[in-house]
Amino acid sequence: MSCIIASLRFSLDEHGAPYYQQLIKQIQQSIVSGVLSVGDKLPSSRFLASSLGVSRSTTSRAYDQLIAEGILTSEEKRGVFVAALPMISHRAIKLPHAVSSAMNDVPQKRAFDAGADMSVFPTKEWAASMRRSWLNPDLAVLKGGYATGYPDLKNAIVDYLYRVRGLECSAEQIIVTAGSRDSFLLLQHALISIDGSHHSSMTWWVEEPTYPPIREVMSAKATPGSLLIDDDGPCLPDSESPSNVAVVTPNRQYPLGGSLSATRRQQWLQALQNDSPSWWCIEDDYDNEFVYQGRSNVPFMQTASVHDESRDRVFFVGSFSKVLFRGLRLGFIVAPMRHIAALHSSQGVLGSSASLPIQPAVADFMQQGHFDRHVNRMRRHYRFKRDALLRLLEAHLSAWFEWKSPRGGMHILLNIKAEVVSSMVTEGILDQCIAEDLSAENIVLSSLSLHYADKSNQKQGFLLGFSGPSEEDMAYIVGRLQSWMEAAHSTK
User: Fold this and answer.
1) Which helix (H) or strand (E) holds 175?
2) Distance CA 62, CA 21 (A)
3) Rounded Cα gap, residues 162 and 143, in angstroms
4) What pLDDT, in 10s, does the model give residues 165-202?
5) CA 470, CA 17: separation in Å to the nearest integer?
6) How many C-alpha atoms does 279 have within 13 Å on its Cβ side?
7) Mind giving me the DSSP string for 200-265?
8) What digits encode the pLDDT tens for the residues 350-368?
9) Ordered domains of the chain (ranges, CATH)
């Protein structure tokens, strides 16, 4: 089936790839070849579907993916256009031979990365915010003022948290930091002062398993305790310590992906209301902008705020690095009103690490609505990439691994089946052995076992971040993982 629209000619092969994929490729090729130029308007999805004799969902899906990738742009009541800065997949671009050869000479690392996909970052809008925020710079920014954060950014964060996460707070409660690590260090220092205990008498609890850098930060003061994870979320331990601080990821546990059940949430709220032993909670809300089915859970801090006894014992930590780009190094703390002064005092002792000159640009990016549009676009984009990875896993790895489709987040947890672990004799831990072997091929895999402190209780598998890598890289890594498993199985 085919159609000709002005200078465009699209044809779909019923024996080829899925129709929407064929259409995506032909639109990309039309842009690369110059048939389509920046600002050109494409036919409506309804008209194109009728011309090709396919369903409208096919043409809409093709347009949606190209819009998510920044190649096309949609303007309300006007239509779909070629984007001002089209970022065409390297599949559609033929590199000059000399450049291609030079690239082939450099080993390319491939990884399942749960970071932001920079290939579709709205660079034009970001550049405009950078320029606008520095046309008439705030003198206090130039002089290094605003120790707790640029006021407009703090107000924008308050608005964003209420609209997207359902958390009610004020700008006074916001402290801008240099990312999550800086937030944890600041809270660790402040909570010792707030609780009134010597640091040696406080127990710092982290989830088991957890993000390894969190455990490293907490172990700087003392050996952290472990919060075991079950189907209801982090278990409340029977602590003998008079003062306890728990670092938790209640809405999507990292790395296992579960969430805190209503029953377990009530147990933690009860613990926060006790004085002996006392409990404090640091809520790490690391990637909850990206929910693909249903709605994200209400932050634990918001739940606690309706209880007089526990509202002052929960601190909320967020980051912009997962949403915008890793190099931004910008995060924030939402502190209970009662403890703002203590955090300001700790910040005065430790110093402010957050970059102040970049904060006006982030504030402008949010105020102009670019941040919300970017999050919405990336939510759709990451859902497509998640689904692509799930198809790869089903086609190539189901014999050895098991997994669940996550309803949100930026990674899939790939568990090695128990019978596979027991049947393969290795000199070390299986997932780490696989990762080490594939690292020789410039493939980077994040082993689940390394996220456990208790080596006797660790599970094995891999964290497959799908937001960062291209579909080609994901397919390549899955293929090499399949080859490794097949070779290991044949030599048993």
Assistant:
1) strand 174-177
2) 7
3) 31
4) 899 999 999 999 999 999 999 999 999 888 876 556 78
5) 18
6) 23
7) GGEEEEEEES--HHHHHHHTTTSPPEEEEEETTEEPPP----SEEEEEE--SS-TTT-----HHHH
8) 988 898 999 999 999 999 9
9) 2-92 (1.10.10.10), 146-355 (3.40.640.10), 374-490 (3.90.1150.10)
